[in-house]
Design a protein that fits this description.
CATH superfamily: Alpha/Beta hydrolase fold, catalytic domain
Helix content: 25-40%
Largest sheet: 8 strands, mixed
Number of strands: 8
CATH class: Alpha Beta
Strand order of the largest sheet: 1-2-4-3-5-6-7-8
CATH topology: Rossmann fold
Strand content: 15-25%
Number of domains: 1
Distance between the termini: 70 Å
């Protein structure tokens, strides 16, 4: 080959590699190629003239059954796939475990509907009905904590115990985060890349990055390459608005069920944090304080704190978290 063609040849190899990597990393917005640890089932739902589906896992106990059920609610940027170690621990301890992907998330339909915690709670109650589960222990992480709180408030008779793992919504964000309408947030969501997602996860969720967390980025970043990503981004913006406009912080005192908070003390999560100046950021999202303040609002609540741990204790400090979780059951 003539020497003057070498650079062009190298360019073609590089281009081919990049396209291949991109094709390999591209994920659909319903995560068809993402393998969950347990079989997926689907519940049909009719809402606002649309037929949609809610994906979920229903895992039977490995050991002798306790006759009790735990339902896991994921955070905003996740789905049932990040609960694997928690499911295994609970199943091994004799619990039935139900793990829904909320509508708009994971393998469930990315529906253009009005999103509300009230409606999501109702769908989860209907899921329990369809599975003949009368009462469940409800564990919610991050946004799932807001949903779990709403579920317990709406259905105290169906909630055996409420478990909150670094829930968001411990503050009323609209009192200090500037308002951004859904369309403007949609424009922000459209700009997401695997690189920006990894930077956000690294800076916001964990105190120390580990290689195993790259799988979370592979999933969240993979959908940004999908031709249907604008739908994913639109739903992400709609659920951002739901979180902003539907606080639960004023209702913690109304909870009637036994409650345990699991708090990574290094968490500094604020929904809409990028809209705030560093000075305002420093005044909010301090979970080492918010955990104690929230526990004081909930009648009879128990607080379990994890030193040196950020937003996702069940991934960052799995042994400590699982010991605390099982001890609370």
């Amino acid at each position: 080959m003539p020497k003057f063609l070498y650079p062009f040849f190298i360019y073609l190899i590089s281009l081919s590699f990049n396209l291949s990597a991109q094709q390999q990393d591209t994920l659909s917005i319903t995560l068809e190629s993402v393998k969950y640890a347990y079989p997926i089932a689907y519940k049909d739902i009719r809402i606002e003239g649309q037929d949609i589906t809610m994906a979920y896992m229903d895992i039977v106990p490995v050991s002798k059954s306790t006759g009790r059920t735990v339902m896991l609610f994921h955070g905003k940027n996740f789905g049932g796939y990040y609960w694997t170690n928690v499911i295994q621990a609970l199943s091994n301890a004799g619990f039935r475990v139900i793990v829904p992907d909320q509508i708009g998330f994971g393998k469930s339909t990315k529906a253009f509907i009005h999103y509300s915690f009230h409606q999501l709670a109702e769908w989860n109650k209907e899921l329990l009905d369809s599975l003949n589960v009368k009462r469940a222990i409800v564990l919610g992480h991050s946004m799932g904590g807001m949903l779990a709180t709403r579920f317990a408030l709406r259905y105290p008779d169906r909630t055996e115990k409420l478990l909150l793992e670094n829930p968001i919504g411990l503050e009323d964000y609209k009192t200090f985060v500037p308002y951004v309408n859904t369309e403007k947030q949609y424009e922000t969501e459209l700009k997401a890349t695997a690189q920006s997602i990894k930077a956000y996860y690294r800076n916001s969720y964990f105190t120390l990055w580990k290689a195993e967390y790259d799988e979370l980025v592979r999933i969240a970043g993979g959908v940004t390459l999908s031709p249907d990503y604008p739908r994913w981004a639109k739903v992400a913006a709609m659920t951002f608005t739901m979180i902003y406009e539907q606080p639960v912080v004023y209702e913690f005192g109304n909870l009637e069920v036994p409650t345990v908070l699991f708090i990574g003390k290094e968490d500094k999560t604020i929904v809409g944090k990028g809209l705030l100046s560093p000075a305002v950021q420093a005044q909010h999202g301090q979970y080492k304080l918010l955990g104690k303040q929230t526990a004081a609002k909930i009648p009879g609540a128990k607080l379990i704190e994890f030193d040196g741990v950020g937003h996702i204790p069940h991934l960052e400090a799995p042994t400590e978290f699982l010991i605390a979780l099982l001890g609370s059951l």
